[in-house]
Amino acid sequence: MADFKGFMKYTRELPKTRPVSERIHDYKELYEPFSDEKTNQQAARCMDCGVPFCHNGCPLGNIIPEFNDAVYRKSWQEAYEILSSTNNFPEFTGRICPAPCESACVLGINQPPIAIEHIEKSIIEYAYANGLVKATPPQKRTGKKVAVIGSGPAGLAAAAQLNKAGHWVTVFERNTRIGGLLRYGIPDFKLDKSVVDRRQKVMEESGITFKVNANVGFNIDPQLILDEFDAVVLSGGSTVPRNLPIPGRELNGVYFAMQFLEQNNKRVAGDDPAKLGEPILATGKHVVVIGGGDTGSDCVGTSNRHGAASILQIEVMGKPPLSRATSTPWPNWPMMLRTSTSHDEGCDRDWAINTKAFIGDDDGNLKALKIVNIEWKEGRMVEIEGSEREIPCDMAFLAAGFLHPQHEGMLAQLGVSLDGRGNVADNNYQTNIPKVFAAGDMRRGQSLVVWAISEGRECARAVDTYLMGSSNLEMKDNSLTKSILEEVIFE
User: Fold this and answer.
1) What is the pLDDT of residue 86?
2) According to the model, what pLDDT value does residue 491 have?
3) What is the pLDDT of residue 466?
């Protein structure tokens, strides 16, 4: 185990962010260098618990105490081998995962938890810098061909695992570059796109084929995919945003968050401005972000870099408590107030606010919002009398989440069944069409990157079993921790 007194010697410490005055003028990643010695100290804090609840907190079942111990012993290759055995893309999760493993950390009961996410990122960056991340084509090919439609983290994970099993894998992406939300949605200051390019290169060298500008259901006939491939994985994500159909929704200046974020990703990448459509720029605007989650936070950070005149983020739910709520005790994911690096750069926030109307000028441009304070009574929204007012706003971003995958095109033409929420229905990842499988947000609904990777891995195992009768691909197993967790909480 790591230093058995480490959690008493050291407290939690993370890399410092670059100064706000510097970072809001660029799209470089946020954090300053952190020494290996300090990372070693953070790994030393791991207690090697009798029951590592972090395993259950992690959707991938990462073997966390073991790689912490390897980092503490400075055995970086061993740490990389342990981490990569359960996680195909630690460079993604180490940057943008909210780290449910840390919420389940036993040390977190009465101290700040282990800096698991930072340690994970440190391991994979060491591995890249020292040539440990290499192309690994399978020694034997099965002759089976699998199409993966959608190149987000679920699709990439499924592709990596199916290639490992020896199948020929082709990934279809409707956009101009691969990555899904990793590429178009998550701002560059949180995930530099060279990180995605680096992984794509390794996957291509391992034998995976990528096809971009390939919009199955529109410029590619899904039936041709079914005819050519032995199995198909649908991993197109949950892409239909939740709308706010109130008076004035049609005004110029009201956008879905992803319209703003995707365009900005393409602008930063140097894409031809003429092909990006109407410029969505927050420069000099009074911006209101409607929705209090991570996507809304990304709109805040991007608006700061545009030079917005003011930024307000509002949320219809009440303000969360400053510390873990009694309704979400350890080791559950805690309900509590979270402040992002984007908020630190400059942003007003308000809670329990309902937006009643977008108000425009004579030219059809947004100029204000009509809002009202609310309170929640028995699950119902009740307006507070006398609180209705108008606030200045000439650019609003709807960041209230996503409903389900796009039904038009591929899903409709394939004829796959949908569940009650509009997601692809399945039985162990297999749809009503035997050779067609589904994974990620398209199957389970809007979720985390770490869940998407887990979905892709589990789906790949189901596909491999369908094609070969059995599978040697790794199976996630944190059942022991889960059973003990249930006993602790419910008995």
Assistant:
1) 97
2) 46
3) 98
3-state SS track over 233-265: EECCCCCEECCCCCCCCCCECEEEHHHHHHHHH
Phi-psi region of 132 (alpha: psi -120 to 50; beta: other; left: phi over 0): alpha
How far apart (Å, rounded) are the C-alpha atoms in residues 328 and 202?
40
**Which phi and psi angles does 61 have, rounded to 5°?**
70, 35
| Predicted confidence (pLDDT) per residue in 356-408, tens digit | 999 999 999 999 999 999 999 998 999 999 999 999 999 999 999 999 999 99
Asked whether the beta carbons of 367 and 359 are under 8 A apart, the reply is yes
Q: Give residue-wise pLDDT tens across range 184-213.
A: 999 999 999 999 999 999 999 999 999 999
Place of tokens 């197993």: 477
For 364-456, list the strands marked E by DSSP.
366-377, 380-383, 389-392, 395-398, 402-404, 436-438
**DSSP assignments along 432-480, one per residue:** SSTTEEE-THHHH-S--HHHHHHHHHHHHHHHHHHHHSS--S-----HH
Cβ of 197: how many Cβ atoms within 10 Å? 13
Rounded to an integer, what distance in angstroms lies between the CA atom of residue 74 and that of residue 68?
10
What is the rounded distance in angstroms from the CA atom of residue 108 to the CA atom of residue 93? 20
What do you get for the CA distance between the two ends of the chain, in Å?
A: 30
> Which residues does 384 contact at the CB level (< 8 Å), separation at least 6?
372, 373, 374, 375
- Domains, the chain, in order of start with CATH, read 6-129 (1.10.1060.10), 145-239+403-468 (3.50.50.60), 243-400 (3.50.50.60)
- Structural contact between residues 152 and 440, judged by C-beta atoms closer than 8 angstroms: yes
Is 317 in contact with 311 (CB distance < 8 Å)? no
Q: How far apart are CA 452 and CA 390, in angstroms?
A: 40
Return the structure tokens found at 207. 């034998």
Residue bearing tokens 């959690």: 7
How is residue 162 annotated by DSSP?
H
CB atoms within 10 A of CB 473: 17
Where residue 423 falls among pLDDT bands split at 50, 70, 90? very high
Place of tokens 């005790």: 329
259, exposed or middle or buried, with CB in 10 Å at 0-12, 13-18, 19+? Answer: middle
> 3-class SS at 203?
helix
- The helix or strand, by DSSP H or E, that contains position 30, with its residue range, turns out to be none
Q: Which residues pair with 220 in a beta bridge?
A: 216
Sequence-ordered list of residues with C-beta below 8 angstroms from that of 142, at least 6 positions apart, any chain:
165, 166, 167, 467, 468
Residue range 468-489: mean pLDDT, rounded: 70
- Count of positions (residues) in the chain: 491
